[in-house]
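Help needed: design a sequence for this.
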């Protein structure tokens, strides 16, 4: 069964023309896709639909085997807990340490502090920030802040991970390390979708593309990885 399925989905804002037209695709459990396309093609809008930040104007979206049109405000948090999102602007809380930023989803879920400390410390070590757990985001580099955002997005072990331009504001070396980290998460079973303009990253990491052009989606197969 597909983890995510879009059937004839369309989206328009207010009374304007549709920004997404007849979107049809499925994401299999454990798959990895790049979401590509020029500026204005509708990538941000499609990502909003995927992380349940926006409802479609028409069509059917099912996630984790459930029809999203039947979801209520009470059941929506259950769906969102299964989705991890890494926003382009990180959206970290600057007054909190790296540890407390990553711990936030677990604390909101009501887990014990013993569980929180163990899991957050292990994850920050895994993303290479074990020595900077008490640092606040403004004192860290862009790449380090990005890894905090990733750790926060995956601390609840989501079934679906969405990342919006994760290599947009960092150098090529850090960008490559981040994509390697996403692949490691994918090998552990997480379904990954990365929205990106970075054609070099797409060439070097051989995963299928979901390409948007003027609001219309096409699924492109894997391409041969570019030699390092």
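Sure. Designed sequence:
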């Amino acid at each position: 069964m597909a983890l995510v399925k879009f059937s004839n989905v369309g989206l328009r804002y207010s009374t304007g023309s549709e920004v997404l037209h007849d979107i049809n695709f499925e994401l299999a459990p454990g798959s990895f896709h790049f979401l590509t396309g020029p500026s204005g093609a509708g990538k941000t809008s499609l990502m909003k639909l995927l992380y349940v930040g926006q409802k479609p104007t028409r069509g059917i979206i099912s996630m984790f085997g459930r029809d999203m049109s039947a979801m209520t405000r009470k059941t929506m948090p259950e769906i969102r807990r299964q989705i991890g999102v890494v926003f382009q602007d990180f959206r970290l809380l600057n007054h909190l340490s790296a540890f407390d930023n990553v711990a936030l989803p677990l604390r909101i879920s009501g887990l014990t502090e013993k569980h929180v400390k163990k899991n957050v410390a292990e994850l920050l070590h895994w993303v290479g920030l074990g020595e900077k757990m008490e640092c606040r985001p403004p004192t860290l580099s862009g790449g380090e802040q990005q890894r905090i955002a990733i750790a926060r997005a995956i601390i609840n072990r989501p079934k679906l991970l969405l990342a919006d331009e994760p290599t947009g504001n960092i150098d090529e070396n850090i960008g490559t390390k981040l994509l390697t980290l996403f692949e490691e998460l994918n090998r552990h079973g997480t379904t990954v979708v990365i929205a990106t303009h970075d054609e070099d990253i797409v060439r070097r990491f051989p995963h299928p593309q979901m390409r948007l052009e003027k609001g219309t989606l096409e699924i492109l197969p894997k391409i041969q990885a570019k030699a390092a």
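The helical segments are 43-50, 76-80, 98-108, 113-126, 142-154, 172-187, 199-204.
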